[in-house]
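Mods, move this if it's the wrong board.
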Amino acid sequence: MVIDPEQARPPHLSSPIRPVTLEDTDALKAVIDASGLFPSELLDDMIAGYFSGDVGDEFWLTIDAGGPLAVAYYVPERMTQGTWNLLLIAVHPDHQGQGRGAALLRHIEQALTARGERLLLVETSGLPSFEGTRAFYRKCGYDEEARIRDFYQAGEDKIVFRKLLDAPATSTPDSSAT
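Not the wrong board. C-alpha cells:
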C-alpha cells in the first residue's frame, strides 16, 4: 500500500513550505521579533540580494499557514565543496513545539541532499537562554562540532552544529544483465 505523504502529514503540518516573496517581509519581521533572535530591521539588508537576484545560491523559505509563520535562510559556505550553512531558522513562538521547525529543517536537508550537497552547519548562541535551541538541533540529529568562546560578545560563545547529509540514492545498472 502506498501512502501519499501529504495525506500522512498531521493537519497542523499541512501548511506548504515555499520560497519567500517580497510580500512576506513584514510577516517575517514579526516572526523574528517574536522569536527575539535579532533586531528584525536587519532583515531588509539580509534579504535584499535575494529579491534583487544579485546573489546565486541563497535560499529563503517560509511555512505558509494563511501567512508566513516561520523563516529559514541557508547559503553555501565559501571555499568549500558541498558545505552549507543554515544562517536563520525561526518559527513564531505561537507555533513552536508542533514539529514545524523540524519539518522545515528536514525540507532543507532533503533539498540539499537532492542537489548532491554533503554537509549542513548551524550556528547558535551558547547562552543558557538558547539551550532549547541547542536541544532542538541535537534532537534533529546534529552534533556539536565547535565552540568559539566570546564570539558574539564577551561571555557569549558561538556553538556550531553539523550534520552529514545522506547521499542521494542513485540507481546503477545491473552488471550481471550485460
